[in-house]
TrEMBL record:
Keyword DNA damage in annotation: no
GO molecular function: serine-type peptidase activity
Entry protein name: Peptidase S49 domain-containing protein
Boundaries of every Peptidase S49 domain copy: 115-267, 366-518
Subcellular localization, as worded in the UniProt entry: Membrane
Annotated catalytic residues: 187, 383
GO CC terms of this entry: membrane
PANTHER family to which the protein is assigned, alphabetical: PEPTIDASE S49 DOMAIN-CONTAINING PROTEIN (PTHR33209:SF1), PROTEASE 4 (PTHR33209)
Gene3D superfamilies assigned to the protein according to its UniProt record, in alphabetical order: 2-enoyl-CoA Hydratase, Chain A, domain 1, 6.20.330.10
Family of this protein: Belongs to the peptidase S49 family.
Length: 595
């Protein structure tokens, strides 16, 4: 048996080399071989027509599968390109519909940074059509200073609209009961299940953030096109227009096909210039290894408890803000003596209160270790997204970031009556108190269950308010007045002291440098402190498991050299065979020694 385990250990070691070490080596070789080179004169091509995330979703297999754009990837790459002598300009394809206004603002700032480096930017549109945030797409195109449109396309930038589908009457018809508690009247996430139309508070809040974003977009376009904001708004709202009319009205700069616009960008870059996709260019950027470290912690998606499961996907990372992962990144950065400050990028609609609190406490531990933490808000940082942000040393938000929403809701759908109408009977059975059945979907809340749920929601809400008041150093009464579950834009939040500064990621970096007393002209490094996921994360886990298995096999090999251990293992093996009905030869029984 000893020889068996020695042989097994050798086999496992060989398999580890074949299936772990060899693939890693091959991947490293392929990645290195596939790394593009930058021509001496290049125009970066940025296609914004694809769906974008706020933060990078790249994986180790992105060179094979491709990867979507993220706002931060675009912004950081454009900043690098502005300082690269080989990059002569940028060519942008605009979406025909809308895009995140916060992302548009942040990319606009990066485009202006490129233009200030005397590098021309051309944006091309094949039409701007009705969409909730098409004004954001137009605003981004206007920032180029050279906006082209395809002839005979449509220019339909006349405002912002949104639509909400209310399900209350359908629920009543089919016997579905939405049982929810909200804190308070502006916490309208579940209003479509509870009402048949906008409540006054729901309407007020929605019009409030829409109006704020619209005003910001108009202001940016007016500044970039050097025109009066009021006159521009009047012209836009008198539309829609054909591309030819938009040109006459000064809303765009030139008409032409996509290829003509691209050729113009290449011509402006000089002889021999090549077009290069911004994603390919990004892969050529080498990280800096000099200067003080500013840790960057990414947080995008719903906030949930637990750990990031690196085995879920070979090609992407976790799409949620997982509390163990984010908190762990804070603790790791807090212990790293090279880290002088932390920038926490938040783009989240909210989630679990306990997960949010876990992340918040980890942030406080980092601050206690002498690391200032600056939050950079992306598309939104609402509800739990604001909870995790409130205790930061400073908060930076884009003017159109949806933030605040200091509020709570909780409840369930009771569908027992609906199921019974289709001949399905659902009955509960439980032991314990009445509350044990509170979240059964078979029935409505009982009065005592409703009271318990209400108290629970109150406790969370009051804790949220207290947390924000302490983190933002505001009177609790002030926080209660501006809370009530209301969503604000970053621009509105600045006036309410819910954020400290308007701006994007690099503005947050500048604030972090100031708080850490890093000289504004000194070299510094941005180092991501997230948990490794995707293929490399899965490989890491496989290696760890392989090491553990080899250790166990080594122990067994050693144990098999002891005749006592061998006899015990033989008895265990024989017993398992007996349980399976096998016939064996009985060994000599093991007689324990007395020591």
């Amino acid at each position: 048996m000893k020889q068996f385990f020695i042989t097994l250990a050798a086999v496992v070691t060989a398999l580890a080399l074949i299936f772990v070490a060899l693939p890693i080596g091959l991947i490293a070789w392929v990645v290195a071989a596939s790394k593009p080179t930058v021509p001496n004169a290049v125009v970066l091509s940025l296609d914004l027509r694809q769906k974008m995330t706020d933060q990078s979703q790249n994986s180790p297999l992105s060179f094979i599968t491709g990867s979507g754009l993220s706002t931060l990837d675009v912004v950081t790459t454009l900043h690098h390109a502005a300082d690269d002598a080989k990059v002569k300009g940028v060519f942008i394809r605009l979406p025909e519909g809308g895009m995140s206004p916060s992302a548009a603002e942040e990319i606009r700032n990066a485009i202006i940074y490129v233009r200030r480096a005397n590098k021309p930017v051309i944006a091309h549109s094949q039409g701007l059509y009705p969409d909730t945030m098409v004004v954001a797409s137009y605003m981004l195109g206007a920032s180029s200073g050279n906006l082209w449109m395809q002839p005979h396309s449509s220019f339909q930038v006349t405002g912002i609209s949104t639509s909400t589908m209310f399900l209350k009457r359908a629920f009543d018809k089919y016997g579905i009961k939405a049982e929810y508690e909200q804190r308070y009247e502006f916490k309208n996430a579940v209003n479509p299940y509870l009402y048949s139309d906008y409540t006054p508070a729901h309407r007020e809040a929605t019009l409030g953030w829409m109006g704020s974003i619209y005003k910001s977009m108009i202001g940016y376009v007016a500044a970039d096109r050097r025109t009066d904001a009021g006159k521009l708004q009047t012209t836009l709202e008198a539309g829609p227009y054909a591309a030819e009319q938009a040109l006459k009205l000064g809303l765009v700069d030139k008409l032409g096909q996509v290829q003509e616009a691209e050729d113009a960008a290449l011509k402006g870059a000089g002889d021999g210039a090549k077009i290069m996709d911004i994603s390919d260019y990004e892969r050529t950027i080498s990280p800096s290894y000099s200067g003080d470290v500013i840790a960057v912690i990414d947080g995008e998606g719903a906030i949930v408890t637990g750990r990031a499961d690196s085995g879920n996907s070979l090609t992407s990372r976790n799409s949620n803000m997982v509390s163990d992962e984010i908190a762990g990144a804070f603790y790791k950065a807090a212990k790293d003596k090279s880290v002088k400050a932390i920038v926490f990028r938040v783009s989240s609609p909210g989630g679990s209160d306990t997960a949010s609190d876990q992340i918040s406490q980890a942030m406080q531990a980092a601050k206690a270790a002498g690391k200032p933490v600056v939050v950079s808000m992306g598309e939104y940082a609402a509800s739990g997204g604001y909870w995790v942000s409130a205790g930061a040393s400073s908060i930076v938000a884009n003017p159109s970031t949806l933030t605040g929403s200091i509020g709570v809701f909780g409840g369930k759908f009771a569908i027992g009556d609906a199921l019974s109408r289709f001949g399905i009977d659902s009955h509960d059975i439980s032991v314990g108190g009445d509350y044990s059945q509170a979240f059964s979907q078979s029935q409505n809340f009982s009065p005592t269950q409703r009271a318990a749920i209400s108290n629970w929601i109150d406790e969370i809400y009051n804790g949220f308010v207290t947390h924000v008041a302490a983190g933002r150093k505001l009177p609790e009464a002030t926080v209660r007045e501006i809370a009530k579950g209301r969503v604000w834009t970053g621009e509105q939040a600045l006036g309410l002291k819910l954020v400290d500064k308007l701006g994007g990621f690099y503005d947050a970096v500048d604030v972090a440098k100031g708080l850490a007393k890093i000289d504004s002209k000194a070299d510094f490094r941005l180092v991501n402190y997230g948990t490794q996921t995707g293929l490399f994360g899965a490989t890491r886990d496989s290696v760890h498991a392989g090491i553990s298995a080899l250790k166990a096999l080594s122990f067994l090999g050693w144990a098999m050299s002891d005749p006592k251990a061998e006899a015990v293992m033989s008895q265990i093996s024989d017993q398992r065979l007996r349980e399976q009905g096998a016939t064996i030869l009985a060994p000599e029984p093991y007689q324990p020694s007395v020591r």
